[in-house]
Amino acid sequence: MTPTARRRVLISGASIAGPALAYWLHRSGWAVTVVEKAGALRAGGYPVDIRGTAIEVVRRMGILPHLRDAHIDSRRCTFLDADGGTVAALSPCAVVGSVEGQDLEVRRGDLAALLHALVRDDVELLFDDSIAALDQSGPGGGADVAFHSGRQRTFDLVVGADGMHSHTRESLFGPEEQFHRHLGYCFAIFTLPNTLGLSRELVLWNTPGRAAALYAVGDHDELHAFLNFHQPEPPSDALRNPEAQQDLVAAVFADAGWEVPRIVRAMREADDLFLDTAGQIRMPRWSSGRVALVGDAAYAPSFLTGQGSSLALAGAYMLANALATHRDHTAAFAAYESGVRPFVAMNQALVDNGSARLFPTTAADLERRNAMLRNLATLPSAPAQPAHSALTLPEFARLP
Ligand SMILES: Cc1cc2nc3c(=O)[nH]c(=O)nc-3n(C[C@H](O)[C@H](O)[C@H](O)COP(=O)(O)OP(=O)(O)OC[C@H]3O[C@@H](n4cnc5c(N)ncnc54)[C@H](O)[C@@H]3O)c2cc1C
């Protein structure tokens, strides 16, 4: 490679972290290829938050006005007791520590589509393909990649942005179990018809260790349902079998009140059911040789923090900036890690095993949470969560 040749990077994963990184690396002169195992951009999905530091990232990318247009702007979050009686009704920002008028909540598919539109003319996008083998020991000094499609290419760097269950991470660092921190909950998400006439609001029912939520995003005729329950150990057997998954959820919620029996029945009919454990990825290092990880692949904080997309956006910016600042990738990866790790640690620390604020597991904790919610409802505005803004972004560098 001559000193003036464009450096080539392969990014695995085209959801949030992947396209965000592609955007910044293209801007600093890299030839970027993104490979995505899905056949097309994955649309739809649950709402995600963009907060604090990540707001500044999307502003610098020029997509903040579009994201403001896509903002879900829920009116209300209503908490219910076991019988469906109202405990408290609050502004959603107050509940999660977002800053009203500043932080955003958008459909995951809207965010992914905006990021995709930003890069699709400038980077090579390979859908319906993935990395089959990655070899860093070749004589050329690059990373030789064999794709499942049969393509063979060499890159200067490879970045895994392939999510919580990252294949790139597994091929470099070994099985996920070493890095997965179980947070003591299982959840099921799916959609169902909006027969309750809910509009731009979240309704959350709780008993100790169990929660059922219905989320009306906008005025659509569809609701996002969410069933969350305490499981101190991951139910590994049930997770492997879709029917066992549903039986597990149905058993946990068997005697539940409010609309829960109807929600559980809808789960059995849903064609988009997704069940998983709530967990985080915690790794001692985020790179090995010419390969680095970004977003959920390296530091998934779990949906319980609502910070996955924000960490992915901020991490992508910081990695690209480190690569623009340091020509040597080892120095760049070290700078990326030292710059982002404290931010990740603060956000991952927002939740620990069985300690999610919205999902208390004992009657006493549920009562304490309800008292806190009633108190919040009387405040003019809730305090912002410091962890969301704990990273100050450097100006984006350019190599001399
Ligand atoms: C129920 C739930 C609720 C959530 N709620 C929130 C929330 O409120 N706020 C928030 O900020 N975040 C939330 N998140 C998390 C958020 O969606 C992610 O943290 C965020 O999208 C991270 O983006 P990512 O690009 O790193 O990973 P992902 O979005 O997981 O994307 C990974 C991409 O890689 C692709 N891929 C996977 N394997 C391969 C492979 N072998 N080769 C090529 N491509 C591959 C996948 O198809 C996907 O497109 C939630 C998650 C869940 C499950």
TrEMBL record:
It comes from the Bacteria. InterPro entries: FAD-bd (IPR002938), FAD/NAD-bd_sf (IPR036188), FAD_aromatic-hydroxylase (IPR051704). Residues 8-332 form the FAD-binding domain. Gene3D superfamilies: D-Amino Acid Oxidase, subunit A, domain 2 (3.30.9.10), FAD/NAD(P)-binding domain (3.50.50.60). Pfam families: FAD_binding_3. PANTHER family: MONOOXYGENASE, OXIDOREDUCTASE-RELATED. This is FAD-dependent oxidoreductase.
